[in-house]
Specification:
Low-confidence stretches: none
Distance between the termini: 56 Å
Strand content: under 5%
Largest sheet: none
Helix content: 55-70%
Number of helices: 9
Mean pLDDT: 89
Number of strands: 0
Radius of gyration: 19 Å
Order of helices and strands: HHHHHHHHH
Shape: globular
Length: about 190
């Protein structure tokens, strides 16, 4: 029998599941993540977890979507801080912060992500949607470049995300310096 939670309880529990799930995913990885551990950490019964998410893969995908929403919200706040257009250094810092702190893909291998896509039967990204997002982002930059330049940046940024997804193979002392230089280079597509 599904647990009955009031709407405000549901929202609180949902947020707590995402927070605890991210913490556990960061420490254990997707393969070792157990729903029972996430539910226990969030203070609910394992069975109650399934009134929020249909599966472990749905749960992780919802964490991905939440991180994307957080990133978009941070970008919107950045836009408000620079109504005349976001300058290069501010955008570069935004992307660095995203890579360092808001990058759920660091916690997933490429095979993990492929498995999530397969299990949830997720459609490939839509080119029209990406084009609209590119145009929206470029309209907020202090730059005269266009959506095609953003698409080039986007591919470079994906390389950075993929390249920094398995940090165990990277020299931690040099990682921040390398990421800063690579993000700087990628951002030059935009300015």
């Amino acid at each position: 029998m599904p647990a009955n939670f009031r709407p405000e309880e549901r929202e609180t529990i949902y947020r707590n599941l995402l927070k605890e799930g991210y913490r556990i995913l960061a420490s254990m990885g997707m393969k070792k993540l157990k729903i029972s551990d996430v539910a226990r950490a969030a203070g609910i019964a394992t069975g109650s977890f399934y009134s929020f998410f249909s599966s472990k893969y749905d749960f992780i995908y919802q964490m991905i979507l939440e991180r994307k929403r957080e990133s978009l919200s941070a970008f919107e706040a950045l836009c408000q801080s620079y109504p005349q257009g976001i300058p290069f250094d501010a955008l570069k810092q935004f992307w660095l912060d995203n890579l360092r702190t808001n990058n759920i893909y660091r916690l997933l291998s490429q095979s993990d992500y492929a498995l999530i896509q397969e299990r949830l039967d997720l459609p490939p990204e839509e080119d029209d949607k990406n084009q609209q997002l590119a145009e929206q982002i470029m309209s907020h930059l202090a730059s005269d470049k266009g959506a095609d330049d953003f698409m080039n940046f986007s591919e470079a940024y994906k390389l950075l995300v993929i390249g920094s997804s398995d940090l165990s193979k990277l020299d931690q002392k040099r990682l921040d310096l390398v990421l800063e230089h690579l993000v700087d280079t990628a951002c030059r597509f935009l300015y």
